[in-house]
Amino acid sequence: MVVDDINKLVLKLVQDIHYGDIQGTYNIVIATVCVFKAIINCSEWNTAKNLMDIITKNGKYLIESVPLEASIGNMVRRILRIIREEYRSELKNKTEETDTQESLHKILTAECDQDTNYDIIVPTLKSALIEHINEVEVELETCSINITQQASEHIHSNEIIMTIGKSNLVEEFFKKAAATRAFEVIVAEGGPSLNGHEMAVNLAKAKIKTTLISDVAIFAMMSRVNKVIIGTHTVMANGGLRAISGSHTVAQAAKHYSVPVMVLLPLYKLSPLYLCSHEQDGFNLHISPTQSVLDGANEPLMENIYAYNPVFDFVPSDLVTLFISNTGGNAPSYIYRLLSELYHPDDYEL
User: Fold this and answer.
1) 343 strand-pairing partners
2) Residue 129 φ/ψ, nearest 5 degrees
3) pLDDT in tens, 149-195
4) CA 106 to CA 325: how far, in whole Å?
């Protein structure tokens, strides 16, 4: 792909992500939406087809440059869906006839033409798109609040809940529930990064009874647990998770003891893509094991050691009981319905 054809704002966004100036899925999503809103507002385009080509070209470059942030692709597809919807809506308003006796056949054929032909110039399209994207930004800003407000519905008094690692959303979820409930949280440390330590400290400061355990104690402690609540990095189209390393262990232990597993899912993390068995390298991220796994004390021995340190686990959908999204609770079998509401099938593969 020719970089000269890519919008400068997109190039800067890629640079900011790579250099760590923008970190965290939520911040990356907000920045992505702002960039594409600016492209819609400032780029030269006449028809919806021109605009969709511009969005697709820049979106593909962004996805290829930051392949492991699936939320970027989700936002690109979400904006393409908005363009399609607003185009049909504005075109319908523009061509609306006063004749109330319009035949059903004419309405159906008009809808068909609108689905395949985006070459008609609609002067009001840009303002409608900007207004709709502003609404999406508000939705993103209130996403976490809408999820945490459901905390008291899923966490009850005197329950013991297990989680793993550090998740800001899960932490806020527990704190919201603690305002009206007394419960205990068991935090698996989430090796080798051990960011569960920070999670346990934060929960303890919030006056929540917290126990920190080693990852090897997950199975032993699961028999005492009432439910598991974890966060996720991405949810695939079949309901499987790309979550932090160790999540698969927790989910399997929960299934053995018939403990429900609940996943907090902001809808911008829901991807229409599937995981293929041959795509593990593209699906996962491996980081250096020398600092967190191997200490480097015996250099001659390390020359003969191959160590893998994956950041993510894949958790199959049959190990998940419930997704708690900003629109409510949904079973993994309902994921297909959420996908149809967020994205257009033609945009699944850009």
Assistant:
1) none
2) -65, -45
3) 999 999 999 999 999 999 999 999 999 999 999 999 999 998 888 89
4) 39
